Amino acid sequence: MKPFIDHTIFLGMHSADEKTRIACKNLIINNFTEGVCMTLEEVGKCDDVVWQRERAEQDHYYPFMDVLHTDMKIQRVPYTATVMNNAITNDLLSPQQRLLLAMAKECKCVLFTLDAQLLHIGSPFVLSPIESASEYVEKKFSNTLEQLYENSLLVRFFAT
């Protein structure tokens, strides 16, 4: 079963908090070959955050992210009618959070997120990459991708 991720995991790979950064990066590396699932909306949320940064930061960030999205198996999934119907039943979360949780359940996947509100609901479908990490030794991407990643670390996010 592929893990389901949200935008906080991609942004988390550039967290100012090293524990968070390493946990998110290792989650991606551990699933690089088999892949991950994410919604198209979550891809857009990540872009929305980055596009609000200075152009110079974008120029450091996007070469890594572009190659990652090309080389890694990322299954980008659209919402279905079933997901839309199931999302309506949880009124403790925002509409976007409801859709994300319903999508993970529909795909029978675990959702990895840094979203405190999603983590707080206590669903077995939702995990933090930090809490599920067995170690905090930073793994490396392939040589070319790792070099792009290291260059992209000029961009750091304090809050995801």
Q: What is this entry, summarized?
A:
The protein is mainly α and 160 residues long. The chain is built from 9 helices and 5 strands, in the order E-H-H-E-H-H-E-H-H-E-H-E-H-H. Helix 4 runs antiparallel to helix 9.
Would you mind describing this structure in some detail?
The longest helix has 17 residues, at 55-71. Helix 7 (116-120) links the parallel strand 4 and strand 5 (126-127). The protein has one domain (4-152): 3-Layer(aba) Sandwich (Rossmann fold). By secondary structure, the protein is mainly alpha-helical. Helix content is 54%, strand content 9%. The protein has 9 helices and 5 strands, in the order βααβααβααβαβαα. The strands form 2 sheets. Strands 1-4-5 form a 3-stranded parallel sheet.
Which keywords apply here?
Rossmann fold; two-stranded parallel sheet; 160 residues; 9 helices; mainly alpha; 5 strands; three-stranded parallel β-sheet
The oligomeric state is: single chain
Q: Count of helices?
A: 9
Number of E-type strands:
5
Average the pLDDT over all residues and give the rounded result. Answer: 91
Strand order of the largest sheet: 1-4-5
Share of helix, binned: 40-55%
Structural class: mainly alpha
CATH level-four homologous superfamily name: 5'-nuclease
Shape category = globular
Q: Provide the CATH topology.
A: Rossmann fold
Radius of gyration: 15 Å
The overall number of domains is 1
The CATH architecture category equals 3-Layer(aba) Sandwich
